[in-house]
Amino acid sequence: MTKDPARIKDAGSGGRSQSKADRRGPNCGAPPVSVQSNAMLLAGDVGGTKSLIGLFEADPRRPIAVEVATFPTQQYTSFGAIIAEYLATRSSRPVIEAASFGVAGPVIDQRATLTNVPWEISAEEIAGHFGFGRVHLLNDLESMAWSVTVLEAGELATIQPGTRRAGHAALIAAGTGLGEAFLHRVGGRLVPAPSEGGHADFAPHTEPQVGLLRMLTRDFGRAEWEHVLSGPGLVNIHRFTHGDRSCAGIAAHQGEPDLAAVISRSALEQRCDACVEALQIFVEAYGAEAGNLALRSMARGGVFIGGGIAPKILPAMLDGTFVDAFTAKGPMRELLQTVPVEVILNPQAGLIGAAVHANQMA
Fold first, then answer.
1. DSSP assignment string, 148-189
2. Do 45 and 189 lie in a common domain?
3. Are 250 and 275 within 8 A, CB to CB?
4. Which DSSP symbol is given to 224?
5. Could you give the C-alpha distances from 57 to 5, 65, 152, in angstroms and in order?
6. Are residues 57 and 101 in the same domain?
7. What is the largest CA-CA distance in the chain?
8. pLDDT by residue (tens digit) across 90-101?
9. More confident call, 350 vs 3
10. Domain total for the chain?
């Protein structure tokens, strides 16, 4: 039975039912379909766990979503296979005027090797195979950064109101990994620029964090921010705060795939003191690195907090711990107290940003 992408929450069943030929990648065949005459935008947000792909109508302010589907990334052998399945679910094939895809990994010469998935993606190959007008690859944080100027008030939660000025901005996002991006103000508008700042060296600033650094260095050879500020990072901190002790807060949930979410709930519900401490260290480190990013970019226009973790731990992000660490920069404290800090609540911000970028190419 043909699936309607607008109603797909998890396209896993589609991925599992594909034949081997259908799952080979950019060269896989898609069923023949008629061509839809009106030109559309195609956007994608390719992550290590799930990938979003959607059709959008062009709009001067914010592209309008027509159909969005979610696919389990690692059940496919390539991003081309996901595109092929997505297009095959439509009764008529749209004309794609421009396509932009945010990918979780560095993009060099419009080719990307994903950090946590054994894929290589080429903009040129996708354009050639599917006949799209223009195709562009973006780092996933760069893609999310394109969304910040079109997000509405209800899609953001304010951590620090500050005073927004016509300056640069920045984005930091902890989820499966840690991403950072700059938004440079050029010609009166914010233009995103990618980075791999999540892999920079972790810099502790409290005694517990110094102990955490020792543990991470012992376990990994070096400690980077992603070892702390990510889902696996919170699990690392949990190991540190518990030592050899068992954890009553997660004892009944050991089989759950998202252990970081279990730890967060245990901390927020105060089921375990060591879980509470772990989440506090996480939020302190998050605030400290967000403040570092604000200084490096002179983000007078604001710092945005993306990723899947911050909205789930919003009470901990709002209790003052994050802001105290964000502003604890000696002579720069007063400057950082003026920087607006907001959490992005819309889980499709990366997809929206890709659509915004595609809209500019059309």
1. TTT--GGGEEEEE-----SS-EEEEEESSSEEEEEEEEETTE
2. no
3. yes
4. B
5. 16, 7, 18
6. yes
7. 64
8. 878 889 999 999
9. 350
10. 2
